[in-house]
Amino acid sequence: xxxxxxxxxxxxxxxxRFAGDSGDGIQLTGTKFTEATxxxxxxxxxxxxxxxxxxxxxxxxxxxxxFQIHFASSDIRTPADQPDVLVALNPAxxxxxxxxxxxxxxxxINSDAFVTKNIERAGYQGDPLPALRSKFRVVxxxxxxxxxxxxxxxxxxxxxxxxxxxxxxxxxxxxxxxRPIEPTLRWLESRFKGEIREANxxxxxxxxxxxxxTELFPTSFAxxxxxxxxxxxxxxxxxxxxxxxxxxxxxxxxxxxxxxxYPITPAxxxxxxxxxxRNFNVRTFQAEDEIAAASVAIGAAYAxxxxxxxTSGPGxxxxxxxxxxxxxxxxxxxxxxxxxxxxxxxxxTKTEQADLLAAMYGRNSESPLPILAAATPGDCFHIMIEAAxxxxxxxxxxxxxxxxxxxxxxxxxxxxxxxxxPRVKVQHRTEPEGFFPYLRNEETLARPWAIxxxxxxxxxxxxxxxxxxxxxxxxxxxxxxxMGFLRAEKIRRIANDLPPxxxxxxxxxxxxxxxxxxxxxxxxxxxNDARAAGQDVSSIHIRHLHPFPLNLGDVLKRFKQVLVCELxxxxxxxxxxxxxxxxxxxxxxxxxxxxxxxEIRARINQMLGGKA
Amino acid sequence: xxxAATLSRKDFVSDQDVRWCxxxxxxxxxxxxxxxxxxxxxxxxxxxxxxxxxxxxxFPYYMNTYGFHTIxxxxxAFASGIKSARPELxxxxxxxxxxxxxxxxxxxxxxxxxxxxxxILLFNNRIYGLTKGQYSPTSKLGSKSKSTPAGTIDHxxxxxxxxxxxxxxxxxxxxxxxxxxxxEMLLRAHQHKGTAFVxxxxxxxxxxxxxxxxxxxxxxxxxxxxxxxxxxxxxxxxKGQKRGIKITDGVPSIVxxxxxxxPVAKGVAVHNEKHASAAYAFALASLARPExxxxxxxxxAVEKSTYEDMLDAQVTGALNKQGPGDLQKLLMSADTWTVxx
Lengths: 612, 341
Known about the structure:
The complex is a heterodimer of chains A (612) and B (341).
Chain A: E1 8-10, E2 13-21, H1 26-39, E3 43-49, E4 64-72, E5 85-88, H2 91-97, E6 106-110, H3 116-121, H4 129-132, E7 137-141, H5 143-150, H6 158-162, H7 165-176, H8 182-191, H9 194-213, E8 220-222, E9 231-237, H10 238-253, E10 257-261, H11 268-274, E11 282-286, H12 290-302, E12 306-311, H13 313-329, E13 333-339, H14 356-361, E14 371-373, H15 379-394, E15 397-403, H16 404-408, E16 410-414, E17 460-462, H17 477-493, E18 503-504, E19 509-515, H18 520-532, E20 537-541, E21 544-546, H19 552-557, E22 559-566, H20 571-580, E23 585-588, H21 597-608
Parallel strand pairs in A: 1-8, 2-5, 5-6, 6-7, 10-11, 10-12, 12-13, 13-15, 14-15, 19-20, 19-22, 22-23
Antiparallel strand pairs in A: 2-4, 3-4, 9-16, 14-21, 18-20
Chain B: H1 26-36, E1 47-51, E2 66-69, H2 75-85, E3 90-96, H3 97-103, H4 105-114, E4 119-124, H5 159-165, E5 170-175, H6 179-191, E6 196-201, H7 213-216, H8 218-224, E7 225-227, E8 235-236, E9 243-248, E10 251-256, H9 279-285, E11 294-301, H10 307-322, H11 327-331, E12 336-339
Parallel strand pairs in B: 1-2, 1-3, 3-4, 4-6, 5-6, 7-11
Antiparallel strand pairs in B: 5-11, 8-9, 9-10
C-alpha cells in the first residue's frame, strides 16, 4: 500500500459504480477492484451490468457497461440501491447511470471524453456537467491525457495508450479507498507481456499517485475489516461456485460427471470452467443444440454417469421434452437453468426469475420433478451437491434455478473444508434375482439404477407408459393412473428430507416477506432494516420450491399478512396461494434488474401502514 | 451372464410380443440383427439399442439387451452420451427416414461428424408409418400421401449422400429381405471403428407397399441393384446383359459390356471403399433408379479418430499431467484471506 500523507477518514460502507463503453474494460476493472476489496477483508456484494452486444458502437448508450461494488466493515447482502461514487468514462456512461447516484454523491468523470461529439452521441443537448455540479461532487480528471503522459516514452500509439485508462481509474479508486494494489500488479504481470503489461502497470500506479498528489481529493477513506465468521475466504461469483459445485457433486458421489451444454448467456461460463477439469473425471460435451445437450446428459445418466446440463431460459424450454423422458424413465440428472430476462431471446445479459412455472409445469402432461433455487453466489456450490444427491437417491431429474444476477455477481465466500461435505456412495443394482426395472424402494419409491454392462439385468426403458414394477409398455387406464400417482408421490416424499424453512425475525406476527433465489440479499436487508426500525415484519427464503418444506404452510399461517417478492409476474405467489390458500400479496418486478432494498422497504411500510 | 461365445439368436429375443404390422420389413431386419448378435463376440450385457420415435424405434423392446426408447429424432444424441460415457459398450442406434432425417437430421449430422464409434441403422421406407401415412423426407418428388393428396413438392434427401456429407467413415446400404447381405453389412458395421451408417431399404406394406420392389424381388434385383465388392469392377445386370459404371470427372455413366469382355479395359471403375476422398462414394451415391442401378453394399469404409477415444485421451492426459483433481486445492485456487476466530 502506498504511503499516505493526506488525511484518511474511516467510514463503514460505500458503494462505487464504474461505467464506460463495453470496450473500456469496465467488467475487468470491477473484478480487480473486487478482488482487492475482498483481500482488504471487507464484506462485499457486486453487480455487473453489461450489454448483450460484444462491441456496441463506441460512445452510444446501448454500449454502456457498468459494475457496482458495495463494500463495508459490517454485514451486507446487496450491491446497494444507490452508488455513493460513480466513475463515468464518457458522457453515455454518465447519462445511463447518473439517475442512480446518491444525491450529494461523488461523480468522477474522464474529462477528456466530454467533447461535443461524445456529448451529442449520448443524446445530451449540451454539456451536462454544469447542471450536475449543484447536486453532486463532480471531480473532473483527464484520464486519457494523464494515462498518455505516464506512457509517453513507451512509443505506443495514442489509441493503444488510451486502452490503459481503465487501469488509471482503478489506481485512482484504489488510492481513494486505500485498497492494496499488489494483487492487481501480480495479475497484470502474469496476464500480459511486453509493452501492454508495462503500460497497464504504469497506468495503475499513475492513477494511485495522482490521487495522492492532486488537490481534487483532500482525503481518502478507509473501511475497516468486516467482522465475519472466522475461516478462510475467497471471492466467488455464482457461476464459478456452480461449476465447483458440479465438480464437488461428482466427488461426493464418487461418480464421473458428464455435462452436456450448448453455449448460451449467462450459462456458458460454467461450461468454460468445467471444460478445464478433466482430471476431476469431468467430461464436458458441447452439443449441437440445447436438445442434444440434455439428451447426451440423460444418455450418460442411463450409462451410470452423473448427467448434468447448464442452460438459460430459451435453452431450458428446448430441453423440456428430454427432461420429460428422464421423468418417465426415472433417470437421475440435474438441469441447471440460469434464468435471464425474457420472453424469447429477451435481454440475455439481464436478470429475471420467471422460469419457475416453466420448471414446475413446462413439460407435457403430469411430469413432476424437484426444483431448487440458489440464494447467493456461494450457495450455488452447495446446492449442486444437494441436487445431485437428491437426483440419485430418488432417481429423478432435478431442476436447479440460478439467475443472471447471482451468476455474475460476487461475494466473499467461506471456503468449505471438503472433508465436511456430505458424501454418499451410489448403489447400482447388480443382483439379477428378483430384479425389475420399476421395482421401487419402499421408503423413497425410487426405482433401481441398473446400468448397461451389468450381467443379467438387461432391460428396456423408454418414454411409453410403464407397467408398474415390470417396466413393460402398458396402456391400461388403471396402470397409468397408478404410475402417475407413484411419480408424484415419489417427489412429494422428498419433502421428508428437507430442512424446515427458517424464519428471519419473530416466528409469528403482522407481516411475513417471502422470497426465493437471488432476491435473498435484498429481502433480508429490507426486513432487517425494518425490524431495526421497530416494524413487525419477518422473512423467509424458500430454497426448495418443489416440493415445499413441510413446515411452510404452518409458517405462512402464523402471520396476518404475507408478501411474496420476486422478479417475475407473481409465480411463487401463485403457487403459495394455490397450495396453502393464504391471502398473500405480490411484489413483482420485471425490468431485468434485481430488487432495490428501498423498493421492498416501501412495500413493507405500505402494508404495515400506521402499525410500523 | 453367458459368455459371448455360447450365445445364440434366441438369447437376443426379448419376452415382448412384436407389434409391427403383418408383412412389415422390420420383422426381417429384427431377425437379421438377432442372428448377427451372437457372432459379434460382445457380452449381451454390453449391448445397448437406442431408438427415437416411429415404427422402427420400437426395435429395442424386442431385443434382449439393454435398450433405451427415447424421444423423436434424438436417439443419436442419447447414444452419443452413452458411448462417450462408457466406450466399452456396443451401442446401436435404430432410426427411420422421418426420425433420423427430418426431426433428428441435426443430431444425425453431428453424431456422424464426431465419428462416435456406434452403429446407426436407418430403416428407409419413404413414409411415416406410425402417424399413418404422411410423406417423409425421403419420399420421391410428387409422392401422394395422406398429407400430400396432390403430390409432394419438396425434393427428397438421400440418406447415403447425407451421411457422406456429414463426413461418415462407414456408409453401407442393404435391403430388408436379403438376410445374407443384411447380416454381412451388420457385421461390417460392427467391425468398423467409428460411426457406421447403414441404410436399410425397408418395405411398409400398409402405407407405401412395394416402394423397393425391384430391389427386393430376386427376379429384378440383378437389373435394379449394383452389389458392391471391394476390389471388384462396378458391373451389374442379368447374365448376358452385363453393364458397368464408368466415372469421369466425378460423373457416372453406363458402359455396355459384351459377353466375356474385360470391364476394366473398357474403363469401368473398380470399387474401392477406402478412397481417402469421399468424392468417389458421392458418385456412387448419386446412382439412382431408374437410370442407374442402386448400389448395395459398403460404399465407404475409412479410418478416422473417434470422439470417445479423444475424450478419454484428454481425461487420461489431464490425470497424467495434473494428477487426480484435488477439490480443496481447486476451491482455494484464487486469492484467499483468513479471518481469525
